[in-house]
Each structure stands twice: as structure tokens, then as C-alpha cells.
Amino acid sequence: xxxxxxxxxxxxxxxxxxxxxxxxxxxxxxxxxxxxxxxxxxxxxxxxxxxxxxxxxxxxxxxxxxxxxxxxxxxxxxxxxxxxxxxxxxxxxxxxxxxxxxxxxxxxxxxxxxxxxxxxxxxxxxxxxxxxxxxxxxxxxxxxxxxxxxxxxxxxxxxxxxxxxxxxxxxxxxxxxxxxxxxxxxxxxxxxxxxxxxxxxxxxxxxxxxxxxxxxxxxxxxxxxxxxxxxxxxxxxxxxxxxxxxxxxxxxxxxxxxxxxxxxxxxxxxxxxxxxxxxxxxxxxxxxxxxxxxxxxxxxxxxxxxxxxxxxxxxxxxxxxxxxxxxxxxxxxxxxxxxxxxxxxxxxxxxxxxxxxxxxxxxxxxxxxxxxxxxxxxxxxxxxxxxxxxxxxxxxxxxxxxxxxxxxxxxxxxxxxxxxxxxxxxxxxxxxxxxxxxxxxxxxxxxxxxxxxxxxxxxxxxxxxxxxxxxxxxxxxxxxxxxxxxxxxxxxxxxxxxxxxxxxxxxxxxxxxxxxxxxxxxxxxxxxxxxxxxxxxxxxxxxxxxxxxxxxxxxxxxxxxxxxxxxxxxxxxxxxxxxxxxxxxxxxxxxxxxxxxxxxxxxxxxxxxxxxxxxxxxxxxxxxxxxxxxxxxxxxxxxxxxxxxxxxxxxxxxxxxxxxxxxxxxxxxxxxxxxxxx
Amino acid sequence: xxxxxxxxxxxxxxxxxxxxxxxxxxxxxxxxxxxxxxxxxxxxxxxxxxxxxxxxxxxxxxxxxxxxxxxxxxxxxxxxxxxxxxxxxxxxxxxxxxxxxxxxxxxxxxxxxxxxxxxxxxxxxxxxxxxxxxxxxxxxxxxxxxxxxxxxxxxxxxxxxxxxxxxxxxxxxxxxxxxxxxxxxxxxxxxxxxxxxxxxxxxxxxxxxxxxxxxxxxxxxxxxxxxxxxxxxxxxxxxxxxxxxxxxxxxxxxxxxxxxxxxxxxxxxxxxxxxxxxxxxxxxxxxxxxxxxxxxxxxxxxxxxxxxxxxxxxxxxxxxxxxxxxxxxxxxxxxxxxxxxxxxxxxxxxxxxxxxxxxxxxxxxxxxxxxxxxxxxxxxxxxxxxxxx
Lengths: 678, 389
Ligand SMILES: Nc1nc2c(ncn2[C@@H]2O[C@H](COP(=O)(O)OP(=O)(O)OP(=O)(O)O)[C@@H](O)[C@H]2O)c(=O)[nH]1
Ligand SMILES: [Mg+2]
Prior knowledge:
The structure holds two protein chains of two kinds.
Chain A: H1 2-14, H2 34-40, H3 48-57, H4 63-82, H5 92-109, H6 115-124, H7 129-146, E1 206-207, H8 213-218, H9 239-247, E2 252-259, H10 266-276, H11 282-294, H12 310-315, E3 322-327, E4 331-337, H13 345-353, E5 357-363, H14 368-373, H15 378-388, E6 394-399, H16 408-425, E7 432-436, H17 452-455, H18 463-468, E8 482-490, E9 496-504, E10 506-508, E11 512-516, E12 520-529, E13 532-534, E14 536-538, E15 542-548, E16 560-562, E17 570-580, E18 591-597, E19 600-613, E20 620-623, E21 633-645, E22 657-662, E23 665-675
Parallel strand pairs in A: 2-4, 2-5, 5-6, 6-7
Antiparallel strand pairs in A: 3-4, 8-9, 8-16, 9-15, 10-14, 11-12, 11-16, 12-13, 12-15, 17-21, 17-23, 18-19, 18-22, 19-20, 19-21, 22-23
Helix pairs in contact in A: 3-4, 5-6, 6-7
Chain B: E1 2-8, E2 14-19, H1 23-32, E3 38-50, E4 56-75, E5 80-87, E6 99-103, E7 110-114, H2 119-129, E8 137-143, E9 146-152, E10 157-164, H3 175-196, E11 204-209, H4 213-227, H5 231-235, E12 240-244, H6 253-256, H7 260-266, H8 270-287, E13 292-294, H9 296-304, E14 308-314, H10 323-338, E15 342-346, H11 351-358, E16 362-366, H12 371-375, H13 377-388
Parallel strand pairs in B: 8-11, 11-12, 14-15
Antiparallel strand pairs in B: 1-2, 2-7, 3-4, 3-7, 4-5, 5-6, 8-9, 9-10, 13-16, 14-16
Helix pairs in contact in B: 1-2, 8-11
The complex binds guanosine-5'-triphosphate (GTP) and magnesium ion (MG).
Guanosine-5'-triphosphate binds next to α10 of chain A.
């Protein structure tokens, strides 16, 4: 703290150079006319670039910022001076308007265009910012076109999307301009969200007294709702047709998340299946065997197929979702091996968000099933989560039955308990299949059982057949593109990659996409599905996309790639219908939670309890309840700390679901019913 | 804060002079000073002098001014309190009625005159001047890719630095990128700690996270410390305390402050006791909802029935500009105390205070159930809403 004290003391008593803002009376200023002061006074809103450039590089504390901010403002002032406005003979009023236009233009264009060009076009267009901008951009483009090939999508300004037309209209030759008003993107790297700097001259950290300073800090500025020049895309082919053309002959892709309590044997089970199906070479397996033996973890040799990081192997637990694939008779199956440990539920949610169906693994060993199934065990929480995330087909692997000598009694006991619970959780009986097996011995995984004890009482399908029998959900390929990002990494070639699942629509190589909530345009340079490069990907696919036109720093996990025309809504506040789980304490208004939305985790607050509903009929029980208890259903308003992309559940199911967690426990699941403009 | 002088009449009018000694004291001053109060403090003023030749020079002079406060601004990060108002005492440099902005400065006396020093204000003076209230704790809550470095003082929780990075996930055959990203993140957190944690001041540095992040990070940091021969970290190794938290978001500080290991180390700090108290309110709401109420109307009714055992109220409510409203809250506090209830004024700068603020700023645990209050919800709710919207 002393550090701050020093800084403050120095800047306040010694350098009193910027005391225009405080420390002396209004009267003192009488020698300056307003327009003069305007030129000389520091004005935050004028110099967005300087400020944001600073904030970007160091988004932590504010007060050290101040000194630098003031410094940074000088180049801006000089630049303004050098323009030589005097020679233009403008009236005071005109000068002020010119200044504000120039500021806006610079925000958009950065320093790429000389000031005299800017001034000229502003004056030509009678201080109309939009027209001036159009003119400058058009000039610039024509110049750009002459030049030999440059990077196709520069940090902005205009983005062209190839010639275009709607399905209906046929003759629109002229591109349809949707809107201008661009956002400053020439500035440095923006991580997360733009920091608004339009708060005039007062320090943004000041707070009216009756307001808690903290509340102010928590709320980040809203994103500018800027739209940009986008020429509507020519839809080449009917998406449905493209889908059947591309995929018709292939096996269906099925994404399956493997869930269950820690140490239930999920990774081992998957590793074993992969080995038995020949997806893992003998050599690799031998290596795993030797190496796991060395650190005394030989029982984890199959798990190592999926647990790849050093940390996971040493500790013998899965920490992040592992991925692998294999084929069954009719399907190409991509497995997502979720971590079972309670601390890694955020990762498990990410995995489950990408899955079509789930495989729940339970440990049949005496006492182990019980500990996973009791309150707070992950068997419960995982099952509730996947159900709330939209998974409705479930296979249950009653695993490690080798430890009970394949006891039918044990199998029945577990099945009975789970059936009751799963029904309550919202799974239909007919959508749940139970399979007895052992991951370690490989019993009943890809072949019918050979174990005589098991044969005595079981004649159902093996696990692989159960997986093969899952129904593949319909893929919403003709809806506007939505892809949720769950990973950002450097690719092998140029640019960088984002990985995620396409929830809706189609993504082609070469497409322009809007990165939301920051609303930056990017171009798809490459696509790969399950590590195979491809020219097109469809709803339901897990893809890696190589992007250009945006900086890797400006893209985060939880962002959405959206159709540039039919954009995903961005908001900080929405209404949701909650189903409250078993909670230790009731939910009240003001309850701070973490919301999980696809791969995004953000802190949020339940700001309003609007109505309590009847659990089964959905009828209104009580308006504005005081609190929400166990297993209640209610309509609430949720406010998020930063703008996020959500959809109403009825529009896009996958993006209309949220999970609420507090202190590491899932307290409720919600469906977005309304989105407020913020 | 040092109390220099106190002169309060029977009718509650009077003045107190105080010397703020640390930045925390600015927070107390912020809570004490209200619009309409008179504040006398030393300040720097720019003075224009015109010489006989007609050229004017401007000088800075230090002078003492008294202003009638009109606006109050508090910069939470820098702990700077800025008061603006008209000059009310004749001064050599400044005319009567001229506006001036005072920045309260550390180690410089200021005099505060109020027409009414109510019980809440006087309590604040006592609290500010209590030397026993001193224990700063640094806490880092983190998860992979997100960390908050916080400083917890008796009445404030300040986020000194937030580190938010995207770390590539593990992917088949590419585990190095994940590990590299993780190390970069740990390095940023370590630099943040070195920059923002004053080891000579803080009692301990809590590192909290889910999973093994905290252990991994601590190991990394100590390894780096040895590698770079960083004496500061090596010497202070014993000050670090590793505990569990469910996430790297600021709010998980609430869990941290309830960890037994932390409680024994920091004893009964305001931050921790407020977390506990609010928790007990929620527990009561779960077990006996008719004994836990929030919102002004409900709480006032409970008070009328002399039912309040513990009243929790956010200091934000006493900062409201409306004098009458403040008076109502002070009256409520006084009356609860008269009836033998316990009153706890939460700091809106702590995590639990933040939550209480969202929960209308006022909540009470009752001695006996008042189910009739629950039924009066309908009429009450309009009020609950207007409190917050
Ligand atoms: N006896 C027996 N042991 C098994 C079986 N399957 C797994 N195990 C053992 O259970 C332990 C945990 O296995 P993992 O595959 O790592 O469990 P997991 O569910 O992936 O654990 P997390 O990912 O950490 O949640 C290992 O020691 C395995 O050898 C089985 O079918 N029978
Ligand atoms: Mg595992």
C-alpha cells in the first residue's frame, strides 16, 4: 500500500501541471475562451486511442495509469496542433465540429490516413462523419486494389463479403450496405472488451457517494453496438443440399461425452476400447505400460491414452477433456473424456456442451458407487448437468464389475437406484441403457461377454453396440452460423486457430465471420475436422478454424463466431427460467454466481426474482418471491459482468442454456427466455 | 486515523479533527463526510498575480480552506477522496463562495463540522481510530488463466491486479502449448504479486484455487525465486498460505475467508466475520424463513415488533445524499440497539458487503418467527424493488 501512497503523494503535490481539472476555482479560468480551452485541456473522450492502448497492455490497476495517460495524451495534442487549423478560417463552431469528426475518424482509421486528407473530406462533406468516412474508405480501397496482393483482411476498415444476394431477390447488383460507424480497431491489442472512455474528464474510478464504488467497478462498459459495412452474402447452394452432398455417403458423426464420478474408470474404459479397436498402436501401448510402471501407476496405462499431460499422468486423474475417435458399424464416434473430479467441472461442462449423447460410467465396487451417488457426488451432478445441457440419450456403463465377481445382484441394485434418479433428472426410461462391463479387463466392451459369471445372467448388447444404437440428432445446417469457441491456440502454419463446435449453420473455407461479443471481422483461412483438413464444416461438427484478420489476443474462450449479417445477440442482462437444484442455502436476489454458457465462465448476479412457477405445470405460483428454495422453478433476471453472446432458447437451443454455479456447486440450470438490450 | 480534537455539543452539532494516516482512512473519511458538511483542510491553490508591467505570473500557494461540501468523489483504487464545494471562510487567496476542490491528503489534518453527529458517524470515528483494527492480508484467487490479486484491509477489499489469459487446452499431440501457456500465466501472476504485495505490511499471502493450480503455481514461483535469487520471495516463503477456492473469480474470496486455516491466521477480521454473518442469514432463510428478512420495509416491521436479533446493514445506505433517508436508517440502527439487538454495519467494499448491497443493503435475523411478514410480501415488494432499481 505504501507504494500507492507514494505515487499519489508525488503526483498531487509536486506535479500540479494538470490542475485544470481540480484544485482551483472555476473563476481562475477566465482568461481562456471555451474553444481555446478545448484545444488545450486534456479530454479523455478525445484521445481514446491513447487510453485504450494503455489499458490494453496493462489491464490491472488504475492509478498508475493516470500518470501515463496524461503523458500519452501529448502526442495527440501535438498532432492536433500540427494540422494548422488556423489557415482554414473556420468559425469556432465549425472548428469544434471538425475536431470531433477528426477524432472519430482517427478512432476508426488510426494514423493510416494523413490529417490533411481527413480534414479535406470532412469539410467536403460538411462535417458529416459517416459520409467522410465512406469517402476515405472508398479511396483507400481502390488504392488497395491496385496494389498487388496484401493481407486480405486488415484489422478493419471495411469488410467485403463476396458479391451477394438473398435467396429471394435476384437482381440486386449493388451491394447492400448495412451500416457504417466503425469501431476503432487500429489501436493495440484489446483483450476482452473495449474500455469505454467516453466519460469526459472525470476519473472513471470516481463514484457518486451513494453508490458503492465496487458496484461501479464491477460493471464493465457495454460493447458499442456497431454494425459495419457488410455486403450481404450470396448464398451459393441450399445448405441442406450441401450437407447431404458432402456427408450423405459418410457415416454419421456422433459426439459422446463420458462422464461420472472421479476414478469411476472413464479414461481406462475409453483407452481400452481404443486399444481393442486398433486405434492405438501396440508400440504406443507398450510405451505407456513401461512408463506408467516406472512411476508406479501401471493401473492407469489405458487411461494414459487420453490423459496426456504430465500433470494428469503423475496424479492419475483427468483434468481437462480428452478427445479421441473410433468407428462403429454405422457411426464415426468422437469421444470426449470428461474429468470426474469436482474441481474440474467447468471443463466437464465444456465437454458436455459439445456432445450429442452421454456415457455415464459408475464404479460398481462396494462403497464406491455409493460415494459417487450420494449428495455432492459427481454421478449426480454430472447427470444433471448433461441433462440440463440438452443431452437426452444416455448409456450407463456399470463398470469395474470384475471387482464384484460379476454379481448380478450388485448390477441390479445399482440399476434400480440410478433409474429412479435419472427419471427424476428428466431422462426417459427408454432413452437410458445399462451395460455391465469392466474397462480394465475389457469385458463386454467391443465384443459380447466371455466371462462365464456374466454370461449366466446377461445377454444384452456390448457397450460398442449400445453406442452404435444411439440416434444422431438432426443438424441445424440451414440456420445462421454460430460456432462457440472453446480453445484458442497457435496453429502450425500462419495465423492462429480456434476450436469449437458449430452449433448452427455451415462454415466454408474463405468465409467471413464475426467474432462476438467484440464484433470483429475475421476470415476463415482453413478448417479441420477431427484433425483432417476440410473445405466445409456443418452444424454438429467439432472443428479447428484458422482465422486471419483478428489478433489472437482479441479472441477468448467462450466467444462465438457468428454469421456477419444475422448476428448473435450480445448483452449483459437477460431473463431466464431457472430450475433450482439441491441448494444448501436459498437463492435470493443479489446472489452472486458464475454462469457457464458453452465454454464461457463469467461472474454474474441474479438481480431480480420475477416469479415462482409450479414445477410441473409451469403456472405462476407467486410473483416476486423472496427467495428460491430447493427444486423450485422460477423466472429471474441475470446480469453478467461483461457482455456475452446468448440466444433465446427458442431461437438457438445450444446458446440458450446457462448453468449457474456457486462455490464449486451447480445450483441451477436456466433457459434464456428474453434478452435485454444493454 | 488519528483523532486530534473532538468538540461536539449536546445537540449533536460540532466538529472533529482527524489526521488520516493510511489510505484506508480515506475510506473512513468518505463514509463520514456528507454533502452539506463543512471541511477545513490544507490545499494547494493556483494564484495569478499581475505585476506592475502588466504581465501575469501564476504561483502555487499552500493555504487552508474551509468549504461547504457539495460533491464527494472517492477513487477506490488510489484511495483518493476529492471534495468539492464553495469556500465559506474568508481567505487571503480565495473569495467567499468560490468553488474549490479539496483532495484530502495523508498525514495532514482536516476538520469536519457537522450539524448532527449521529451514532453511526460517531461509531465510524471510533472504528477509524481504533489501532487494533490493523491487519492487512493479501489474497490471490486463481484458476487456470484467471487470477485476482487482492489486498484485504480491515474495511476494504481492493483488487490490485487482474490477470486474464487464454491458455490453450490440452490437445492430442500438442500438450506443450498448454504447458507453455500455463507457465506464462504463472509468471504473470508472480510478477503481479511482486509488484502489488507489500511483504513488509501484509500478515500473510493467501493463494487460493481449485484443483492443483495453487500448488503448481507456488512450486513454480519458488523455483523461479531460487533461480533468480529473489530474496523477497525466499525470505517470505512462510507468509504464503495455500487454500482451496472454487474459482479464480473475485467472489470466491468468500470461501477463502471461511477456510479454517485462514481464520486462524487472520483471526477475527471484519471481512471474515461479515462473510460468516451473511452466511448465517442465508442458513436461517433456508431453515426458518420466517426468521430471516431483507428489504427496508420488512426489517422495519420486524423492528417494530422488537424482533431483531442481528441487523446487517451496508454502509452504502448511510452515504445516501438524502438526509432524511439517512436519518431513517440511523434511527433504525439506534432502535435495534435499544431493543437489545446487535447491529453490524457491513463495508460495501468487502465481498459480502457487495452481496448485501445487492440484497437491498439491509437484512435481519429475528429472535422469533414472524410468518405474517412473509404474507405481506405483495405490498412490500414494490419497495424492495425501488430500493435497488
Ligand atoms: N478393477 C478395475 N479397476 C478399474 C477398472 N476401470 C478402471 N479401473 C481403475 O480405476 C482407476 C481410475 O481409472 P481412471 O480411468 O483414471 O478413472 P477416471 O474415471 O478416468 O478418473 P478421472 O478422469 O480422474 O475422473 C485406475 O486405477 C484404473 O486402473 C475396472 O474395470 N476394473
Ligand atoms: Mg479420466
